[in-house]
Design brief:
The protein is an alpha/beta fold. The protein is about 30% helix and about 20% strand. The chain contains 12 helices and 19 strands.
Length: about 375
């Protein structure tokens, strides 16, 4: 019987957990044996007793060395990667380009590592898509953080003390995170504008009550998988000229632009930040991947001429209960793609596995990661 280990996350401040009692119960029913590290779900609101009731056993961190499969939110440490037994599986958001030493350790330990962020954007894989599920949580939380930091209220209010005008929110990027941010800001009563280099996003923005700020679109603005491509510097210069005018009127700007596998594009220069009013707020949702905003810093709030730039690196983790539910359900939907009756079979020709497997059999299968490792070594 395949033993699945659900550990506490090693990253400081990470509150999410990769399996919840609901998905543990489903895994046990599918024929897996599940061991959960003591306290793994506590910060997300899932106590040990609930895991035991779902059929899991409780254990210490040393179970990693005995497990056939390890589930995680983020990449393990190098030492944890080395501790996994040969032939075991790791399923998590690996971000191999940012964790090359971990990838090397997994390769040398002969672990089959699967990077969930590489899940292909095909219909059958939608329910396994952690990027979308976690972006939904992050987009929601970004607006709440901005609302808490902004020294005015979001909605229009008619009071005996006079009229309070609504906050103006500008959202850059209308992917999953951006659309959730639009919806949340509208629910709070703000006037919302949004921009994206993909023309098809206009209808989605307007369907949520936002106004689309049209800055034109570069050729081939979208990949076949539905992600935005990196635009040319000339296009970005023209885009910035248009957006600067809208930023000067905004109380809040939320930037969400990411290019898979690449450093985040710069959407806000220092001059654009300087154009904003003192007391206004910027939330850089891409800060962990280089940042969309010049001057943003991971894990810090930077104040420039009275403008607060929030660099929260784990927005989804701040709503850990629901973020964990969604992430755990993504994994639970993925497991049947390579397992049956609790037994695992790895087929690298499988439509989904060939996209997500990074290391297998002592080799790095993901070519960009293999090239990056070779260049570093």
């Amino acid at each position: 019987m395949t033993l699945i280990f659900v550990p506490k996350e090693p990253a400081a401040g990470e509150s999410r957990v990769s399996a919840i009692p609901e998905t543990v119960k489903a895994m046990v029913k599918q024929g897996f044996q599940v061991a959960v590290e003591h306290g793994a779900g506590a910060h997300a609101g899932f106590p040990d007793a609930d895991y035991e009731a779902a059929g899991a056993s409780l254990c210490g961190p040393d179970m990693r060395a005995s497990a056939d499969m390890v589930l995680g939110i983020n990449a393990p440490t190098v030492d944890q990667a080395r501790a996994q037994k040969a032939g075991s599986l790791l399923v998590c958001s690996l971000l191999p380009g940012q964790n090359l030493p971990v990838v090397a350790a997994l390769r040398d330990a002969r672990v089959t590592a699967m990077a969930l962020e590489f899940m292909p954007r095909i219909t059958r894989a939608q329910k396994m898509d952690i990027l979308s599920s976690q972006a939904t949580c992050a987009g929601y939380q970004a607006v709440l953080l901005a609302a808490a930091k902004l020294p005015k209220m979001f909605p229009l209010l008619m009071t005996a003390a006079g009229t309070i005008t609504p906050a103006r929110v500008l959202i850059l990027g209308a992917g999953v995170a951006g659309l959730q941010a639009i919806a949340t800001a509208k629910r709070l009563g703000a006037v919302v504008e949004a921009n994206d280099i993909r023309p098809a996003c206009r209808e989605q923005v307007e369907s949520l009550g936002g106004k689309f700020v049209d800055t034109g679109a570069p050729p081939d603005a979208e990949t076949s998988g539905g992600y935005a491509k990196e635009a040319s510097e000339e296009f970005l210069r023209k885009q910035r000229e248009i957006l600067t005018h809208h930023m000067a009127q905004a109380d809040v700007v939320i930037t969400t632009a990411l290019v898979p596998g690449r450093k985040a594009p710069v959407l806000m220069t220092a001059e654009m930040v300087a154009a904003m009013k003192p007391g206004s707020v910027i939330v850089d949702m891409a800060v962990a991947q280089g940042g969309n905003v010049v001057g943003s810093k991971p894990g810090e709030t930077v104040v420039v001429n009275g403008v607060s730039i929030l660099g929260e690196t784990n927005l989804a983790g701040q709503v850990a209960a629901d973020a964990s539910r969604m992430f755990a359900r993504n994994i639970a939907s993925f497991l049947p793609e390579f397992s049956k009756a609790g037994q695992v079979t790895i087929d690298l020709a499988h439509e989904i596995l060939k996209s997500v497997v990074v290391t297998h059999g002592g080799e790095v299968c993901h070519q960009p990661t293999a090239a990056a490792l070779a260049a570093k070594m």
